[in-house]
Specification:
The chain has helices at about 1-25, 35-50, 65, 70-75, 90-95, 95-100, 125-145, 165-180, 215-235; strands at about 55-60, 80-85, 110, 150, 185. The chain is α/β, with parallel strands linked by helices. It has one domain (about 30-235): SGNH hydrolase (Rossmann fold). Strands 2-1-3-4-5 form a five-stranded parallel β-sheet. Helix 8 (about 165-180) links the parallel strand 4 and strand 5. Helix 7 (about 125-145) runs parallel beside helix 8. It is globular and about 45 Å long.
Length: about 240
């Protein structure tokens, strides 16, 4: 009887967990993520017209990836697939992850999303962002069980400095998660974008004090590429 009782408890626990997972996505109405559909369709069109190598590094995320116009040159000799769209949050990207990754077998996936906390009413709290990131990881692992997945630290910016404590908490939570899981990596970058006064160095950003300028991308690339080389060695790639 104890075995039967235990089995029933496990069964209902699994059902409840499944329902919670579904509800967590159902809370987002269609209009909260449908705006990104045209960008995703453009990615799918590229997948049909461009032949990408299987040893490419796939960069997925928000506008800092999309606006990285020198990424192909910066990442040489590593081939890249650029899949960033402006304004991406994890709360909308999880509705498109499967489609963005569907036609690729990358050697590594690198992710940068920085908009879930930006000082608007729709902001998520750090723990909610972490739950969305875990859901994103689950989606990636369904298609690529052992592919190294790296998260770039969210950059400190003057435009979102009031939200930095919460953003920094997200960074901390993601770093801790990556330290506990195999083939998950955290690329630290934030310190290099702070000045001697401990505040964002605006000389590395364009006038909106949010997006990187060429000098900022040079710093970003050096940090990211060196970590990619380290990860490739650690993963025997």
């Amino acid at each position: 009887m104890k075995i039967i009782y235990y089995t029933i408890c496990v069964f209902f626990t699994c059902i409840c967990f499944s329902l919670v997972s579904c509800v967590s996505l159902k809370q987002y109405p269609l209009e909260s993520y449908s705006w990104a559909a045209p960008e995703v369709r453009q990615f799918e069109a590229l997948d049909k017209s461009v032949e990408y190598p299987n040893d490419a590094i796939l960069f997925i995320g928000s506008s800092s990836i999309r606006l990285w116009n020198t990424i192909e040159e910066d990442m040489k000799p590593f081939p890249v697939i650029k899949r960033g769209y402006g304004g991406a949050h994890f709360r909308d990207m999880v509705f498109y992850t499967d489609r963005i990754l569907a036609n690729h077998t990358p050697e590594m996936i690198v992710c940068f999303v920085a908009n879930d906390i930006k000082g608007v009413p729709e902001d998520e709290n750090p723990k909610k962002v972490l739950r969305l990131i875990k859901y994103f990881i689950k989606q990636v692992r369904e298609q690529h069980p052992t592919t190294p997945l790296a998260f770039i630290e969210i950059t400190p910016t003057s435009s979102r400095w009031k939200q930095w404590n919460d953003i920094e908490e997200v960074n901390r939570l993601v770093k801790e998660l990556c330290e506990r899981k195999e083939e998950l990596y955290f690329i630290s970058t934030a310190e290099s974008f702070l000045g001697d006064d401990g505040k964002p160095n605006d000389s590395l950003f364009i006038s909106d004090r949010l997006h990187l300028n060429p000098k900022g991308y040079t710093v970003w690339n050096q940090l990211i590429k060196s970590e990619i080389i380290r990860i490739k060695k650690a993963s025997n790639l």
